[in-house]
Amino acid sequence: xxxxxxxxxxxxxxxxxxxxxxxxxxxxxxxxxxxxxxxxxxxxxxxxxxxxxxxxxxxxxxxxxxxxxxxxxxxxxxxxxxxxxxxxxxxxxxxxxxxxxxxxxxxxxxxxxxxxxxxxxxxxxxxxxxxxxxxxxxxxxxxxxxxxxxxxxxxxxxxxxxxxxxxxxxxxxxxxxxxxxxxxxxxxxxxxxxxxxxxxxxxxxxxxxxxxxxxxxxxxxxxxxxxxxxxxxxxxxxxxxxxxxxxxxxxxxxxxxxxxxxxxxxxxxxxxxxxxxxxxxxxxxxxxxxxxxxxxxxxxxxxxxxxxxxxxxxxxxxxxxxxxxxxxxxxxxxxxxxxxxxxxxxxxxxxxxxxxxxxxxxxxxxxxxxxxxxxxxxxxxxxxxxxxxxxxxxxxxxxxxxxxxxxxxxxxxxxxxxxxx
Length: 421
Description:
Largest sheet: 7 strands, parallel
Mean pLDDT: 94
Strand content: 15-25%
Structural class: alpha/beta
CATH topology of the largest domain: Rossmann fold
Oligomer: single chain
Distance between the termini: 41 Å
Radius of gyration: 22 Å
CATH architecture of the largest domain: 3-Layer(aba) Sandwich
């Protein structure tokens, strides 16, 4: 079955480059570094190499506490981080600077993977979250590179899809040296697909520290918002902004300021145009536009400031959950002590969402109208907002510690890393 999978990749390869060209119309970064996608890794300094892979922005942020721990444990090693998207790469550059070398993950063809391994010479490979690449895992195993799936998650929906191709997935998982799963449910789903050597270590995202300067940015935002009641719609996905605008701008909240931060930066201009077409009085972060008493919506069209928005908001909705998109991570909001509202579609972060609701840190709404009603209730009840804020902070603190558990899993391999004579 892997031969058929590889043939499919070869047949799809020309279309992959067409896709990069097409995406490059709006994001020119997609037209850069093509050689890396074919396996030409960047030149690395001599010495042991620890290779991590994080698909995009969320996974790159999740890698941050692990990267800090790896640098502290093995400062003599080079850290190479691969991503799939330009936004993930840009986030990595912002978070880690020159301390971490960056590249794109090569396409999952044996020729490209072998080329990458020959250039990069990784001594250990760590893949974050839901990354199962049959040819890559096979080539790493053949090359003697111990490979781990860490912070692993697998929703019920994804497990069902992978189950249809279990004959391809099971051998790939068998090539792994170990798996660090976020939850017991993730571990059980991976086991049913044929995985072994699974430990439940928790979610690395609970260990993410707010970026340096977050409190100063949050205070600057509070001054900019000038005492308005701030309802933050964070990490919104396509179609959600319209629903939120239709319902929440009509709320009977005199000092309401709706702050919208789209999940994907390539949509910033699109969302701004959508608001302009509606005649919304809009201020944009990217243009340093002031918030006046007439301003209805503030568009957070900047990178790296979401933690500050959470700290400056009175209530936050976590996007990707009003529509059937699986939801986005609520942990950063909880860590900022921000009361959280989530929609009905949270299968990507189901256990964290349910735990946050149980802890009193979050509430679930069923649709956009229900979201508007929940915002209005919380506006009228400052004491309930305070209790949710405290519960959110305690919830985030209680679930920390995944980094230490993952490092314990990796320790036998990290201890073996030595300079070649």
